[in-house]
């Protein structure tokens, strides 16, 4: 696939009037052919350093079950990370979980800018447009971002089956945590294994700044690494997402201050 016809995102159309949007920043591990494998072995692209394992299949299932629009990132985060702000030093990683990325180090200012212009910015324009399209009749949409995390970090076995990451807007977060924990059969993390307050990331940029209700859900990768796992988690999550979306309070614009920094002046 050449750079000219490489799509940086895929939009799954749905009923925008539902007022729900699903996002999957790290859905895919693809690279335009001009980049080869960035000097990495092919096996690197089966690891979490390249994409969020299981998220594409899970998001497609949820979009189909709920009938809602979804947006998938189509490029590997090894090329450039769509869930980082433009001035984040980890936007283009030189080393990821011990793997040196030869195609990213050294990197010229021109190439850095090319990746922003060709992949990162088009993705974020698509996020903005999709959210705007779902802002029906002046109602804020509910935005749910799907990610996945590794079962282990170093020698630490992560005990959570899933987790909700967030900054300071708890409107969708608290009911999501409650509903995930309600059956009592899984361990749910609250801002684990990472803190959800990250200046410039997708939720900060498209939800925190404009005051749109949102949550970022992380599912452990070994639980959604095959069709059976994706089916099970889609069946678990779909009624929860539907219940959240039925709450009028999750369709109101309300700006919460970020725990990172004051928002940039408009």
Automatic annotation (TrEMBL):
<protein>
    <submittedName>
        <fullName>Putative N-formylglutamate amidohydrolase</fullName>
    </submittedName>
</protein>
<dbReference type="InterPro" id="IPR007709">
    <property type="entry name" value="N-FG_amidohydro"/>
</dbReference>
<keyword id="KW-0378">Hydrolase</keyword>
<dbReference type="Pfam" id="PF05013">
    <property type="entry name" value="FGase"/>
</dbReference>
<dbReference type="InterPro" id="IPR011227">
    <property type="entry name" value="UCP029730"/>
</dbReference>
<dbReference type="GO" id="GO:0016787">
    <property type="term" value="F:hydrolase activity"/>
</dbReference>
């Amino acid at each position: 696939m050449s750079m000219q016809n490489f799509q940086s995102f895929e939009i799954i159309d749905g009923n925008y009037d539902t007022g729900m949007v699903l996002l999957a920043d790290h859905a895919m591990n693809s690279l335009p052919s001009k980049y080869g494998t960035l000097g990495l072995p092919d096996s690197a692209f089966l690891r979490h350093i390249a994409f969020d394992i299981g998220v594409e299949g899970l998001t497609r299932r949820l979009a189909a079950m709920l009938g809602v629009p979804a947006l998938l990132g189509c490029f590997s985060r090894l090329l450039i990370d769509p869930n980082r702000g433009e001035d984040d030093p980890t936007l283009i990683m030189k080393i990821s979980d011990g793997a040196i990325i030869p195609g990213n180090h050294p990197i010229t200012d021109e190439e850095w800018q090319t990746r922003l212009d060709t992949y990162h910015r088009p993705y974020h324009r698509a996020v903005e447009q999709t959210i705007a399209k779902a802002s029906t009749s002046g109602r804020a949409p509910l935005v749910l971002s799907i990610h996945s995390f590794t079962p282990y970090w170093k020698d630490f076995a992560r005990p959570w089956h899933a987790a909700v990451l967030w900054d300071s807007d708890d409107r969708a977060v608290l009911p999501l945590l409650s509903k995930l924990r309600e059956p009592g059969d899984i361990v749910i993390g609250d801002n684990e294994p990472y803190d959800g307050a990250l200046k410039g990331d997708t939720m900060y940029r498209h939800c925190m700044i404009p005051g749109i209700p949102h949550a970022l859900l992380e599912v452990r990768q070994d639980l959604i690494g095959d069709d059976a796992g994706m089916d099970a988690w889609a069946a678990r999550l779909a009624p929860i997402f539907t219940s959240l979306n039925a709450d009028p309070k999750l369709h109101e614009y309300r700006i919460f201050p970020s725990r990172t920094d004051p928002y940039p002046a408009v």
